[in-house]
Amino acid sequence: MPRRRFRPLRALGVLAAVLALAYAVGAILGQPRPERAYYATFLEDRVHVHAHAGGDHLNPGNTMRAFAHAVALGVDVLELDTQITADGVVVVIHDDTVDRTTDGTGLVVDYTYAELQELDAAYDWRPPGGEADAFPFRGQGLAIPTLQEVLEAFPTVGVNLDMKSADPRVPEATCAVIRATGREASVMAASFLDANLRRFRELCPDVATSAGPDEVRGFYVFNLLGLGRWTAPAADAFQVPVRQGSIEIVAPRMVRGLRERNVRLDVWTINDEAEMRRLLDLGVGGLITDRPDLALALLGR
User: Fold this and answer.
1) Burial level of 173, CB count in 10 A (0-12/13-18/19+)?
2) Does residue 182 form part of some domain?
3) Residue 179 — φ and ψ, nearest 5°?
4) Is the CB of residue 184 less than 8 Å from the CB of residue 174?
5) Which residues pair with 172 in a beta bridge?
6) Closest CA to 186 of 26, 28, 42, 36
7) For residue 244, is it within any domain?
8) For residue 90, what pLDDT is reported?
9) Is residue 213 classed as helix, strand or coil in its secondary structure?
């Protein structure tokens, strides 16, 4: 059988065609994220200060007192956590149990909303460095708020809500509260549970969302390989720690890659002033912090 001759020009032509096709596909699939109303019309184009749980080093986290104080300081976003009650009310509390922060015990989901209101939401809070037996807001009437209460009480700031519960009612109940309060343009939904985000996006496609763990991992790997521009993230923001174990997530390559995709990068939970400065110099879009007063002062606000 006669041997075929290698034709360099033909091979180069085939390679060029393949590369052109690949880049054409990448250009189609990897369009930058369109601007959301959450950023385009509601929040100013600047570094955003997120009060983590309302500023948990300043006031009992996830309480109306904390949120009111953060708004008075001038934060851009109230970051909060949600669970759901036995009777389907979306409430603002971090853990799936009430044990750590209140004077009660047991799962949030086993309580009705009315039963939760009997608990002291500031029972075990004290400021960092405070006396071990000093609980300044214990017995002051601070209760676990509902998501609806927070959205109605603070209409002038963004709200970043983290759906902590795996209860299948959560995405629909959360979407319903956002719609009932007319906050579609000023809320971002987040979750460490990818299933929550997938379902929420189906129900509330007009509401901004943060990336789930699978999305963060996928983009990180693609971006590391130089393929970040070929991706089309479903999220409007990545909200991540500086590091995950030995992996540095918030690095210049990640900042550039997300900026090319028109996706914000918010970093949690940053309470050290020097680290805030470093991240601002790196070009992150937002600081999620228990000390919003420090971040605002650093930004001259």
Assistant:
1) buried
2) yes
3) -70, -40
4) no
5) none
6) 42
7) yes
8) 98
9) helix
Rounded to an integer, what distance in angstroms lies between the CA atom of residue 293 and that of residue 51? Answer: 9
Query: Cα–Cα distance between 234 and 211 in angstroms, integer?
Result: 7
Distances from the Cα of 267 to the Cαs of 232, 241, 275, 281, 289, in angstroms? 21, 5, 11, 13, 9
Residue 75 structure tokens: 């934060």
What is the token pair recorded at 42? Answer: 């509601």
* pLDDT tier for residue 228 given thresholds of 50, 70 and 90: confident
Can you give the pTM of this predicted structure?
A: 0.89
Q: How far apart are CA 257 and CA 249, in angstroms?
A: 12
Long-range contacts of 131-140 (CB under 8 A, 24+ apart): 137/59, 137/60, 137/65
Cα separation, 80 vs 188, in Å, equals: 11
Domain count, the chain: 1
Structure tokens at 1: 């059988």
Residue 265 lies inside a defined structural domain of this protein = yes
Structural domain for 195, as ranges: 36-81+156-298
Pairing of strands 247-248, 243-244: antiparallel
Looking at residue 5, what DSSP letter applies? P
Does 274 reside within a domain? yes
The string of pLDDT tens digits covering residues 116-137 is 999 999 999 999 987 877 899 9
Q: What is the CATH number of the domain that holds 288?
A: 3.20.20.190
Enter the tokens of residue 152: 């109605």
Q: How far apart are CA 186 and CA 71, in angstroms?
A: 15
Structure-block tokens of residue 70: 């953060």
